[in-house]
């Protein structure tokens, strides 16, 4: 897969209420990012701004395995990576939580999900979780731009394959779909299509401006579906850069499309956490840092959960 992001030396400053974190980062130039949310004012509960992305001495590391499976829906091979947490046990009494990330190679490099999971688990912030990272590079928008075929692949092929090979939960409320940009849209879309399988959506700069089946004539299509349909049993963590003010190819301004999606969810009474990251653009600088916040919010131990 062609690398989506160039890694260069930089310094990133992350501010959250009551703390400032200076991070030696990767992407280009110095930036100051400030987490802001309209849906959950007590962001300290979820420790926004803490850096979970660095390998920590003494923290046990999970295992990553790579697979190629036959995708019968798209009639091609598809690469999948699977992270299992430290001390993963196929005979564990309680099944493991499940996280599925689209654009999987990016969540192994630019957004170091395995390291983040290792650190969160060692700190007791989340339950042990199996992570399945899906490679969408062959036809990214053919997968992720509101396509029923991809939702069919995920629900009818990928999930049964996961369940057959790993000791993972079958409970929707313990399962998360995750992605950035078109992957964030794809996560919300697949959850909308299959709420019986997926109860949580973690969308980073979701491309909610796109139309149905990759079309350009019915923009912000998914927002309209949530607006017009009965409420589903879904929870959302949405984050977007406050500087994502560019017009999309279809016309809507990126961050404004995210706000309208948020508004549609709030109007229906969905449980959600929404953040605009000041100083952040459409790039992995904030995605890598906010992923942990989203995972803590959506998959933290039950006593740490609350409705904003």
Characterise this structure.
The protein has helices spanning about 115-120, 140-145, 150-165, 180-195, 220-230, 255-270, 285-300; strands spanning about 10-15, 20-25, 30-35, 65-70, 75-85, 95-100, 130-135, 175-180, 200-205, 235-240, 270-280. It is an alpha/beta fold. The protein has one domain (about 35-305): Rossmann fold (3-Layer(aba) Sandwich). Strand 6 (about 95-100), helix 1 (about 115-120) and strand 7 form a beta-alpha-beta unit. It is globular, with a radius of gyration of 18 Å. The protein starts with 9 loop residues before the first strand and ends in a 9-residue tail after the last helix.
β-strand number: 11
CATH topological fold name: Rossmann fold
Low-confidence stretches: 1-46, 301-308
User: What is the beta-strand fraction?
Assistant: 15-25%
* N→C terminal distance: 39 Å
The strand order across the widest sheet is 2-1-3-11-10-9-8-6-7-5-4
Q: What global shape is seen? A: globular
Mind telling me the CATH superfamily name?
Alpha/Beta hydrolase fold, catalytic domain
Helix count from the secondary structure assignment: 7
Count the domains: 1
- Counting helices, strands and paired strands, the structural category is alpha/beta
CATH architecture: 3-Layer(aba) Sandwich
H and E order: EEEEEEHEHHEHEHEHEH
């Amino acid at each position: 897969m062609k690398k989506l992001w160039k890694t260069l030396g930089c310094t990133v400053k992350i501010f959250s209420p009551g703390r400032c974190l200076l991070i030696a980062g990767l992407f280009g130039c110095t930036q100051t990012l400030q987490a802001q949310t309209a849906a959950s004012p007590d962001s300290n509960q979820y420790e926004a701004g803490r850096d979970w992305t660095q390998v920590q001495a003494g923290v046990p590391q999970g295992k990553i395995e790579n697979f190629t499976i036959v995708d019968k829906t798209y009639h091609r091979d598809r690469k999948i990576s699977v992270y299992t947490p430290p001390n993963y046990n196929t005979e564990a009494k309680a099944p493991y939580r499940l996280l599925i990330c689209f654009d999987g190679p990016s969540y192994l490099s630019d957004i170091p999900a395995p390291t983040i999971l290792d650190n969160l688990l060692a700190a007791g912030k989340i339950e042990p979780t199996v992570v399945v990272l899906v490679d969408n590079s062959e036809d990214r928008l053919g997968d992720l731009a509101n396509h029923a075929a991809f939702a069919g692949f995920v629900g009818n092929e990928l999930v049964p394959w996961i369940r057959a090979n790993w000791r993972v939960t079958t409970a929707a409320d313990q399962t998360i779909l995750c992605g950035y940009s078109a992957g964030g849209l794809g996560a919300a879309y697949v959850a909308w299509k299959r709420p019986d399988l997926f109860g949580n959506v973690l969308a980073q700069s979701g491309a909610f401006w796109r139309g149905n089946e990759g079309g350009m004539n019915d923009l912000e299509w998914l927002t309209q579906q949530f607006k017009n349909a009965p409420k589903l049993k879904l929870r959302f963590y949405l984050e977007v850069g406050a500087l994502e003010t560019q017009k999309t190819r279809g016309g809507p301004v990126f961050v404004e499309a995210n706000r309208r999606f948020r508004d549609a969810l709030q109007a229906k009474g969905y449980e959600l956490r929404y953040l605009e990251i000041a100083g952040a653009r459409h790039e992995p600088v904030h995605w890598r840092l906010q992923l942990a916040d989203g995972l803590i919010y959506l998959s933290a131990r039950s006593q740490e959960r609350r409705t904003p």
